[in-house]
Amino acid sequence: MNSVPDYFGCMVFDDKAMKSRLPKETYKAIKKTMRDGKRLDIEVANVAANAMKDWAVEKGATHYTHWFQPMTGITAEKHDSFISPDSDGSVIMEFSGKELVKGESDASSFPSGGIRSTFEARGYTAWDPTSYAFIKEGVLCIPTAFCSYGGEALDMKTPLLRSMEAIGKQAKRILKLFGQDETASVKTTVGAEQEYFLVDGDMYNKRKDLIFTGRTLFGAKPPKGQELDDHYFGSIKPRIAAFMAELNEELWKLGILAKTEHNEAAPAQHELAPIFSTTNIATDHNQLMMEVMQKVAKKHNLICLLHEKPFEGVNGSGKHNNWSISTGKGVNLLEPGETPYDNAQFLLFLCAVIKAVDNYQDLLRMSVASAGNDHRLGANEAPPAVVSMFLGDELNEILDSIESDASYDAKETVQMKVGVHVLPRFPKDTTDRNRTSPFAFTGNKFEFRMLGSANSIASANIVLNTAVAESLKSYADRLENVDNFEDALHALIQKTIRDHKRIIFNGNGYDDEWTKEAEARGLSNFRTTPDALPCLTAEKNVKLFEEHKVFTRAELEARQEIYFQNYCKTLNIEALTVIDMINKDILPAISSYIGKVSSTAAAKKSCFADADFTYEENTVKKLSSLSASIYKSVNELEASLKEIKPLDAVEKAGKFRDIIIPKMEEIRSYADAAECITGAEYWPFPTYADLLYGVR
Ligand code: ADP
Ligand code: MG
């Protein structure tokens, strides 16, 4: 095998490939498009397409696809081959600029939230030249946006790109105020840390719940969980290490900067973190990473579980979205500066984030809402469902002193004035101690920790980019024509702190006291997905998205509809799986075991009439009572499902939350109790102990 630098990115038509394959003029035109988001002209596209095709064919590709991210949360592709008939009956490999730039797709099977019926059934895909094309399994993949013929976004990428444009535009206005006229572009950057579980493939195949829902719907606690903290950062088992090595190799070929890997808190849980990149590329890469993880796992007879809560009783999986703002030249705008003036700029960007998170806490919560993530948020392991920010002691002290016009350090007698005083350097590691905070400043970036492991990171970043764009816009509007810039700046920062400090919380986010205090502070607390989704179309939020041209009202309504439906569909599948497993596997298993124990008792009795039957009697009694309870509850679950079927998605979602989930939990508690007293060989599928400790 070649060395990593040799094969890194070998499957990507990246800058290096473009430079060597494209005529200088074409290369320049494409780079310009990438930098400024300009339209690509068709001549340029033709040349680029041909070069891309030659490159891909040399690497063994025969097909191309517009690779896009519909609202299903996963990626979609439709393969077309490069072949085209030649006049002599043979074929040649062809790929035109038109095919590169725009594809047509029958949108009718993708969720559109009603947009489709009011416009056209077809959609189109348009190349996003800011994300490189790559080869996956012999197919040239062209990262694209997916829209309806009316131009409405039907995917995650379109609004994400719009939101990046929005924040870029407003950030440039701010930088101009600080004398930085020449900044060509400002983009947000993201590094997404991905958690996942690995279980043995043979065991997985015996669990319908894992197959159909991605999580276990049954399973008694094993004798050992994560209480010894011996898995976290523990040594990696050979089979897992082999998986990780191949995964890294595949990701590196795709130009994905996989960097850090380690065991996570729960048994069988792991994490992979890439080096950060521009947000839309980070989003593409995270989708690819999830896909490649699942594929590579299969080769090792492992299954990669991306569900947020595959196992009850041990930690679930999340995704930490490390986010910052950067100039095109790579200057991190959330990096505290060296001079008072730089510090002032840093503080203004910091305040923009504080204001954004406070004003749009509802949207941030909504952006990570899913049936799977509901098991984590607020469940004493992931951050709570209440959005708050952690800034660290140093920064807090500084903001306090700005707010109250006091000196921030007892040793100093002068008051802290923005733009005049140098901030102390914050030691980086002291800012990252609060693991319970949903939104933590970690020295030069924010870490948004509420995302679920299966979530596309697009949603969270669309909200974050747009909300911060709005803060920056209000600041630029305020500061652009003032006489005394420094005074106005100081006043603005002070006002932001005063108005929005309620969102800052440095204590323990898992504490019940915090929930009460958060309520007193007026912070929102959306416990579940159906609670969080309505805010998507709240007037203030429609206004935000329309103002920054990220979503139209119609697009928001469509998305809301899709999210409600997704929630209902997910839970419906879970409920049907519970019914299936109970009726076909669990009740029959309990019955056989009751039969076995009863016949043993009968046999014993025929030998010695005075034998002790306590075990047999108690076991049969307990199991009979449990199976009666299970049977009754399952019938009730079936009846409830029938009853709620005709309701509309919003009402139905509420019923799933209030009736179906508790009923499923009740059934599970009986089944898990039965598992504990049923002979191991009678239990119809692998147990928690098997699944969590089965990969050796
Ligand atoms: P920490 O120790 O604070 O967790 P790391 O250096 O381990 O920080 O980084 C965690 C994640 O944050 C990585 O994915 C990293 O690439 C990402 N990251 C670092 N700097 C930035 C930045 N400026 N913008 C976005 N993500 C970043
Ligand atoms: Mg981290």
Short descriptors:
696 residues, alpha+beta, Ubiquitin-like (UB roll), Creatine Kinase, Chain A, domain 2, Four Helix Bundle (Hemerythrin (Met), subunit A), 3 domains, nine-stranded mixed sheet, six-stranded mixed sheet, 23 helices, 17 strands, binds adenosine-5'-diphosphate, binds magnesium ion
How would you characterize the overall build of this protein?
This protein has about 700 residues and is an alpha+beta fold. It has 3 domains: about 5-155, Ubiquitin-like (UB roll) (Roll); about 165-550, Glutamine synthetase/guanido kinase, catalytic domain (Creatine Kinase, Chain A, domain 2); about 570-695, Four Helix Bundle (Hemerythrin (Met), subunit A) (Up-down Bundle). Helix content is about 50%, strand content about 15%. The chain has helices at about 5, 15-20, 25-35, 40-60, 95-100, 115-120, 155-175, 200-205, 210-215, 240-255, 280-300, 340-360, 360-365, 395-405, 460-480, 485-500, 510-520, 530, 540-545, 555-605, 615-645, 650-675, 690-695, and strands at about 65, 80, 85, 90-95, 100-105, 120-125, 135, 140-150, 185-200, 260-265, 270-275, 275-280, 300-305, 320-325, 390, 440, 445-450. The strands form 3 sheets. Strands 9, 10, 11, 12, 13, 14, 15, 16 and 17 form a 9-stranded mixed β-sheet that branches. Strands 1, 2, 5, 6, 7 and 8 form a 6-stranded mixed β-sheet that branches. Strand 10 and strand 11 form a beta hairpin. Helix 20 packs antiparallel against helix 21 (about 615-645). The chain is globular and about 100 Å long. The two termini are about 25 Å apart. The structure holds adenosine-5'-diphosphate and magnesium ion (MG).
